[in-house]
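Quick review question:
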């Protein structure tokens, strides 16, 4: 069997468009290739008023949300309705020559009667099961709600709508009388899984560490026949010993980050209604020092820049605006709401939301309001075009360099600088092919 798997995998790598064997048992290769033309502008004014040289749209052809990627999946029928599964996934950026970046990589078991277990680096319950990517029609584009759009909980720990969670396991149950359950556990009480330390055997930044205990998520979903799903969940990303030992920021020491979520994803004939609400407590800090990579955010106080990768940046301006981030050790909420209408092969979309970072210590309250309008045209089930416009109104914006820094209280001179470039506008049009 090992020899057969090796041969099948080699053929899959040599012929990436070929599906080997079948979906019941065998090896297959799948993926997405996404590319778009995007124009991003963050409003800027000079300190004495008037415009500045960088007050313009930055344009690029790229994959700003790092959505393109390929994966190999394997499945073996073990009998009695049980099957072994495995997945190896990498992502890349079209138009920018960015090398493959590791994503989901796991092994597990699946059964129609008992559900699915995945062990390794996995997508979280809040990303794949209860809301997250499923309540954003423009996910994977420069118009998506997470990160720069300011309307999705998206920490780089992977516990929200971004990345994956390392050193973890998930369980997704079958549907019983309309109900299903998703659970994630991450028992990473180890120095080698500490995001505050450089050169650990994991991607930085992430979660875990000595004294971390068990991070977890749990969610319940109810399927309404013909209409869709409603869901609720809870997430806890614990602080480790090194995080708790850091000097207080905003008058508080690090504590366990907790998130409560409710939401729905419904459809009534050609109309879709979807959204979610998250309440976050004790937003965890970023770790720009001393991690080896520099990292741009571990917990909800960090930055998921989303369409930032389209820029490259003139001095004093970047398209990586951190509109979904909360104040370090503070609370806040993030909600989104969307409407869609199917008109033949065209899906019309109107969606948006708001992030509110509550004031804590010397950090003032900040808000980011998102409105997005656009359309998706499907040439087939696997090929589509999109076009749309997004505007984000920001009060008290964060810059990438200042996220999570103890010396930046977002008051006085610091807030005056930040207020010079609050509002964000994005135009995007692009194509995606799934294989």
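Suggested answer, residue by residue:
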């Amino acid at each position: 069997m090992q020899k057969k798997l090796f041969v099948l995998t080699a053929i899959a790598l040599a012929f990436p468009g070929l599906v080997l064997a079948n979906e019941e048992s065998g090896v297959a290769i799948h993926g997405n290739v996404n590319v778009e033309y995007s124009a991003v502008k963050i409003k800027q004014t000079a300190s004495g008023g008037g415009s500045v040289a960088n007050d313009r749209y930055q344009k690029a052809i790229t994959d700003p949300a790092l959505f393109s990627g390929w994966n190999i999946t394997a499945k073996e029928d073990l009998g009695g309705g049980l099957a072994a599964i495995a997945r190896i996934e990498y992502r890349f950026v079209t138009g920018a020559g960015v090398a493959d970046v590791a994503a989901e990589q796991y092994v597990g078991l699946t059964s129609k009667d008992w559900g699915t277990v995945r062990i390794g680096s996995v997508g979280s319950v809040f990303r794949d099961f209860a809301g997250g990517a499923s309540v954003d029609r423009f996910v994977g584009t420069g118009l998506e709600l997470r990160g720069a759009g300011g309307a999705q909980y998206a920490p780089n720990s992977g516990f929200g709508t971004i990345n994956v969670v390392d050193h973890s396991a998930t369980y997704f149950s079958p549907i019983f009388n309309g109900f299903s359950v998703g659970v994630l556990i991450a028992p990473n009480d180890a120095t080698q899984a500490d995001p505050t330390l450089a050169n650990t055997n994991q991607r930085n930044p992430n979660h875990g560490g000595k004294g971390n205990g068990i991070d977890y998520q749990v969610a319940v979903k109810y399927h309404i026949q013909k209409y869709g799903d409603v869901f609720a969940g809870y997430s806890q990303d614990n602080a480790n010993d090194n995080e708790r030992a850091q000097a207080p920021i905003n008058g508080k020491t690090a504590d366990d980050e907790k998130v409560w979520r409710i939401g729905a994803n419904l459809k009534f004939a050609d109309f879709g209604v979807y959204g979610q609400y998250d309440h976050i407590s004790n937003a965890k800090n970023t770790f720009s020092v001393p991690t080896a990579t520099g990292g741009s955010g571990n917990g909800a106080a960090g930055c998921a820049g989303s369409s930032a990768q389209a820029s490259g940046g003139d001095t004093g301006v970047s398209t990586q605006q951190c509109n979904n981030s909360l104040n370090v050790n503070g609370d806040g909420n993030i909600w989104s709401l969307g409407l869609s209408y199917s008109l033949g092969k065209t899906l019309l979309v109107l969606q948006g939301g708001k992030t509110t970072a509550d004031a804590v210590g010397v950090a003032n309250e900040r808000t980011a309001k998102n409105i997005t309008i656009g359309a998706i045209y499907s040439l087939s089930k696997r090929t589509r075009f999109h076009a749309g416009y997004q505007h984000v109104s920001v009060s008290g914006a964060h810059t990438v360099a200042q996220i999570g820094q103890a010396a930046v209280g977002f008051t006085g001179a610091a807030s005056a600088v930040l207020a010079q470039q609050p509002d964000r506008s994005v135009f995007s049009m692009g194509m995606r092919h799934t294989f």
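Why it works: The radius of gyration is 21 Å. The CA atoms of residues 68 and 371 lie 25 Å apart.
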